[in-house]
Amino acid sequence: MKTVLAFGDSLTFGTNAATLLRHAYEDRWPSALEAGLTGRARVIAEGLGGRTTMFDDYSTAADRNGARVLPTLLATHTPLDAVVIMLGSNDLKPFICGKVSAIAVGMRRLVQIVQTHPYDMGGTVPAVIIVAPPHCGPSDNPDGLPVMDRSIEEWRKLASVYAKVAQDNGAYFFDASTVATPSRVDGVHLDGPNTRAIGVALVLIVEKALGL
Amino acid sequence: MKTILCYGDSITYGANPQPGGPRHAYEDRWPGALEAGLGRQVRVIAEGLGGRTTSSDDFTSDADRNGAHILPTLLASHAPLDLVVIMLGTNDLKPAIFGTALMASYGMRRLVQLTRGHFHMLGEPVPGIVIVSPPLVIDSENADMLGHFGGLPHAAKESAEFAYHYARRAAELSTGFFDASTVARPDPLDGVHLDAANTRAIGQGLVPVVKSMLGL
Question: How does DSSP classify residue B119?
């Protein structure tokens, strides 16, 4: 049995924009991916609301800096065969970073961490799959469109920049905006069907990364 | 479906007492055995990190071993939770960390406070908590491993006091309590880690405690 780690933010956690609760287990994309891999792999979900690639954000009690927490999670879940990373949405908040050029450096750092971690207990370096999160879009949220003043224009550049990081660092790449569109409730988070769609679409590329 | 978070160290991870040996199989790790023992009515999430302490830094690893530092991140990642089972303290016995079971019990108290405070702050339901007193440290020919924990006399004496101090903390804090040393003994190969059967026994031993706390 193979093991896959899904490392992400609220889109991986499964935040439901309409209810502000969590999507049902079956609707979260790591669960949909596991279902699609039909018993050949276990998918461990580590999705934290507000997580960034490599930036601090002390507005919550959780540690949102992905680069700081990733080694701990790799050591907790090794041996791993693949790590799927979908981050960047929170880096696009202007007060965090806001520029894809810097976010690409954060994603590259995460790939480096996965590729150089001193794996214990027979673990080896897992394959990495970089996922560009679905583009933010227009919303009916009266507090600002899209949430936290993120730039839709900047967000749209993320996929091509991540594709290059993947190519330069021996990682796989998938653009989730090809299969998922955010809910109009807040312009960033996904409804149940759009969340599941990411997991379903990832099945083929994860199969390839795992040699299945 | 209810959800349980199992928060622990290498014993929760499922470390092999054979140096260089592979991680115990999923089914043999105690969170896996607990999930199986609950008849799959409950989802069990395992967060076991080798070397994790209750509340102290240990920068000999690139992982963050400070259990109090990383717990809020994991609570936020796995919420909503119905129960949190915490088995930590063995690494606190290292002389470079706290060195005593009493101090480890104060670290456990901090983890209970953190868990309750986290959900109170967010206005979300507060999960039940089970404090688990870890297995004893026993004699072994693996001198490096025992040395790591301050030598056999120190580690054996302090680990024998876990249950006494942890039971008092559990009573003060109104949490559930389970003494894993009543069902599991380390492998003499290294004196600290457990073979597969003893690892499973912790999960099986927890089944009635967890059932009663979850009202199953």
Answer: H
What DSSP string describes A54-115? S---TTSSS--BHHHHHHHHHHHH-S-SEEEEE--TTTTSTTT---HHHHHHHHHHHHHHHH
Q: Determine the CATH number of domain B2-214.
A: 3.40.50.1110
pTM, 2 dp: 0.95
From the list B21, B47, B118, the residue facing A76 with the nearest CB is B47
CA angle A22–A27–A28, rounded 5-degree value:
65
Contact (CB, 8 A) for A74 and A3: no
What's the average pLDDT block by block, 10 residues per block, for chain B (216 residues)? 97 95 96 95 97 96 97 98 98 93 98 97 95 97 92 96 98 98 97 98 98 96
Would the CB atoms of A63 and B62 count as touching at under 8 Å? Answer: no
The answer to whether B157 and B174 have CB atoms below 8 angstroms apart is no
The CATH classification number of A2-210 equals 3.40.50.1110
